[in-house]
Model the fold of this input.
Amino acid sequence: MTEMQKMKKRKRNAKAGKRVKGSRGFGGTKSGGPRLPNSLLSQFPVLKPHNGGLGTDGNAGVDDEDINSDEGEIGGLDVYEYDEPMPEEESMKNRRYDHVDNFEYELPEKFEDSNVSSDDGEEEEDYRGFKDIKRSSNSDVLSGNETEEEEDDARHDRMLQRITELPAEVFESRPQIRNVVSEAYLESEYNPTRDILDGSGHLTIQDLLNPVQGKPVYAEFRKRMQRLNKKSLTLQPPLPKVAQENLEREVAYERSKKDVTKWEPLVKRNREAPTIFFDEDINLGFSTVGAITSEFEPRTDFEKKMAALVHDSKVAEAHKEDGAKLLELNKISLEDVKDRQNRLAKMRSLLFRHEMKAKHIKKIKSKTFHRLLKKDKEKRRTSIDVQMDPEAAKELAMKQEFKRAEERLRLKHKNNNKWATRILKRGLAVQDEQTQAAISEQLHQHALLTRKMNSMKDSSSGEDDERSDEDDDDDDNLDLGMKSDMASKLLTKAKEKTFEVMEDEDEMPKSGVFSLPFMTRSLAKKSEDARAEAKVALEEYDLALNQHDTDVPNNLNKGTSSGRRVFGASIKQPEESSHVNNNIGRDSDDEDFETNKNVNVESARSVSLQKGVQIDIDKLNEEFDVGQDFESFDHLVRGNAPKTTYESAVFASGSWTGKKNPNVAGSTNGKSTGVAQHDSSYDNLKDADDNDDPESGEEMVDGILSSSPKPDYELPSQADLIRMAFAGDDVEQEFEQEKIEVLNEENPEPEKTLSLPGWGQWTSLQEKYGLPSWITEERENAKRRRDEALSKRKDAHLKNVIISEKINKKAENLHTKTLPFPYTSKEVFEQSIRVPIGPEYNPVTSIVALNRPEVVKTTGVIIKPIKFEEVNPHEKGSEQNLNSKRDTPKVKKNKPNNGKVIKTTKTAKKKS
Amino acid sequence: MEDDKDSELISPPVAAKKDALDELDSKVKKYLRGSGTDLEGLKDKKLKGQLAVREDLYGKSAKAAAKAEKWLMPSEEGYLEAEGLEKTWRIKQESIIQEVDILSSRKAFDMILPDLGPYTLDYTSNGRYMAVAGRKGHLAIIDMHSMDLIKEMQVRETVRDITFLHNELIFAAAQKKYPCIYNRDGVELHSLKEHGATLKLQFLRNNFLLASINKFGQLHYQDMTMGEMVANYRTGLGRCDVMQVNRWNAVVGLGHSCGKVTMWKPTSSAPLVKMLCHHGAITAMAFHPGGHLMATAGQERRIKLWDLRKFEVLHTYTGNAKSLEFSQKGLLAVGNGSSVQIWRDQSGDHKYSRYMSHSMVKGYQVQKVAFRAYEDVLSIGHSMGLSSILVPGSGEPNFDSWVANPFETGRQRREKEVHSLLDKLPPETIMLDPTSIGNVRPEKKKKEQPTKKESEAEMQAAIAAAKSAPLKNKTKGRNKPSKREKKKHEGIARVKRPFLDQQMKEQQQLLKKKQRIAKIRSCQNLFGNSSRSSSDIIS
Done:
């Protein structure tokens, strides 16, 4: 066998090893495993010589790859060159290999690693493959020479046997003879033996036990060792991790499968249950205050003290008894009382002092307060003084004079100071309101102080006062007197006054603000107005005076009506005069009303005219009974002139009616007053009668007719007849037409554009070949679609019915947009909601069940994980649930938990 | 109550003879409201389970309800039974009155009010109060329990119709120019001028709407809580004085002079249904309280019964009717001339036949017939006043005080007012089939293109989605905020692009169209001018 061949063979073997499983068979059970207990190892030397050659090879295999290859090479070379099975003997002589023999069992891990990494370039794909590799690599070298060597051995033995005729056993032990090779150095810890250097300092348990020999522990150890040796079972090599896990998972899957399937009926039941209850167990532990307090344990010092006192056996005993002892226990020492009193006294004094302080502080007022107070006081004092004491008044005057003088000198309040100038420079309009106010205030102050003081004897004001006094006097006189001559006096006085006023007004002020041009203009205007008024007044006075003279006192009223404006004081006059007049005569009252109506001043002539009217009215008054009208008119007149009195209202009504119906006023005897003077309600009634519907009239006729002996025939009214006459003109055809229209509107006919000549094709072509096929097709399609739509209509087969197919957008919200999730057909959904579930439609017994939610749970209740219970998988879960909604407290479903379980099963499956 | 009193003439109920179980079954069926879902066809196991549970609950509920009905509502409506050759319609009111107890016999009366013209009337929903309106302005409210006149007044105007609003405190009268609302004391609360000269008034109780039809055929709906005018539609079919509300779905039916019946809801300007019922003008119409049956009377001497589910005629009878009315139990009163007939559905297949008849003094013209709820009484308003007759089997014998309580106290009335206001239904709930509320929305006609608004909304949604889309964490250099921002913007732009493209395309199309139109116009102008000029030349 060439070396190359050998190598190849080895490789093949390595490969074959993957395939061949039974390669373990070689070394018997003892040599196969890489990891053997030490007890076995100790026996190993017995075997060693037997498979020495093999051992070397095996060792070489076990050893580093280099060694292996070297060895292989050497072996190969030997074999190749000499062609003898000699090298075994030779190698036997080499002591090193013997030791290597032992070494083999020390490093199984390393062996694995090296093998994986270097020897077999192929990566292991599978556990089995890996195992094979390992086994094969373990045995490949052996197997390399296996057959020949064995044969050689056997041959050799047989040969020896034949020669020596000795039993085979003798030769078997032959390899035990060792050739001792002396070391180059002394064996010591400094010169370790070769095998130690090579890493196979090999210790057996026996070695370890040797030192303890003879000690009492030894027997025990030995016994144990023996036991171990006795039970020396060959252990399988542990499976690689991947395979182990794989197996584990397999088993786990089986188990969990079993575990999970037992839940299945339970889960199924819960899934099928329409409602799941979670609130069975609602025991929350403590519920009463007593229960909570009983658990209380004193922790702080204070609490402990309290507890000690409370739970004092003496106290408790005293309580248990009549309680008399409690008093004894309650004794306080004198010191304690004193202490307490002292403490209280101290506290009280502190409190008192604090109070006093607060009071004091409260009394303290600010500087400004005092200043203001002082000012106030001063003011009060001066005002009083001035009033009471001429001296003080003088003093005050002096003071003020002084102030004024000072102001004139210093011009402090003029806008000269820094603040004011600054503000003015910046512009007053820009300033905020307060600044503006301050500036104006200052100016005002200045004006006040610098104004030339008016002397006390100002002529105009004095006169005014006088005059007003006079007026008052006059009024008084009038009030007292109430006589006609008084009136004339008054008039004359008024005249005088107006004259005076007119004269006064002529004087124009020549200086001050009023001298400004626009002021003068306005003043002039005013005065002119006033003068005009005064003139009018004067005229009136004249007139009044004249009339007064001719004993017509009522005209005074007119004068007053316009004179009112001029004199504020004379407002009272007309009323009073009217009072006077009422006493005098009725006709005057009438006129009073007239004046109230038209306010313009009337001349004497108009008065005479009025008189003419008065007569008429009087006549009228005599003629008709005013009765009811009176009140209504009274209201009206009051509305117009609230000052008129009761009597005047009566006659005012007369004139008012005259106004209303002018023809009546014009010709008193023309129409009967009764016609004009309708009772309003009556009038309305009449109106209603007049305006009554013509139909109602007809109906009345009907009513009369109805008493005629023909009961079944009702004479129709003209309108009805006409309606009937034109109604039934071929209604059916009309209806058909209408239906067609509606159909056309709701399902419009297909477009006609396609039939236009030349549409989509040249006209000439179209003429030749007719319409192109696509057009006809499209048309047909459209027509068919329309026909389909029409045939689908509800009224398709009803000749005389049109049912609108319009979709009501507003009602769209009342329908579901799409089919809800689990449903797949509309019919099923609609059938499922056909029964109302409200309380109005269902008996109380079923209303709860109908509306129960999917999960019933009270807040705060802890949802406990699902518990296993036996459920008959074949029973109907829903029914049971229905029947015993609350009676089966264990029907629980824990969704999350279920989910978990399911998840695990899924994952297990995935893994496997 | 009152039915037990019609003792002798009324036999024990037929139903009692039937098997009790069978009866219960039928009741259960009623409460189940149709068949359950076909669970076999379902593929979704979970849904199947859920639905099975639901159905079970429904079944139990229905059973409980049926039992409750059986034990708590024992009264059955009575009816007249003839013996031998006797005919029920030959039995006179006098003989009925003789047989019934005193209390019931008092319910029949004649009130002669000759002056103020034909009378119309209306009952409150509990049948306790009656509002009476004479054509010539006579209004009155009567408490039918004590026969007290609560208020009587004269409005001195034509009054065409009267109706109670939600309770007896307020009523509306259609007067000459416009309807007015009065309270019980006769104080005019409102005048609804917008309605115009109304001919008929109807109050939709659940929706608090007052519906009116005026001389010009305009239908008005006014909300009686807020006063808002909900709808104003022109029927376009001329004057119309027949109006009835279908109490089941609150759809208003109008009978027109062209023989058409139209049905309206306040949220649609076009009628829901328009049907040609008669060749002559419609004179009266009535809806069965069940909502699926309608009776119409035409001027061509026909009375028809319609199935409103199929809109088909069930039966046609010959006869005139001035006024039609269905009772709570489904009797049909037909008032014509001076006689009133009551029809009854004996077999249960809507084949109405004559049950009773009553003729008043000759010459009286019936204006309006109205059944009193929860009583076996029919009131007739006619040209000479009011009459009231006993009609055994017309009223619902068991009243539900939650629905309508004839013995309502003031406190209960107030309570109920509040409740009914809270339960007020918006106008859009009025539709032909109110049971379809909650169902899947009917499919729209598919549009070729989404509207601008929709596309805008779509774009916004897409942009929002792009904005909120999470960004990946990139490696160090590429995870800068600026880069992230850029990336985000890019994403938004990418999302936006198709929409913008679409918009651009549309705009371009529009532009092209405009250009084309402009070109055509200019061409036309050109041609027109040239032709004109050519014509000029020729001339």
About this structure: DSSP finds 45 helices and three strands in chain A. Residues 389-450 of chain A form one domain.
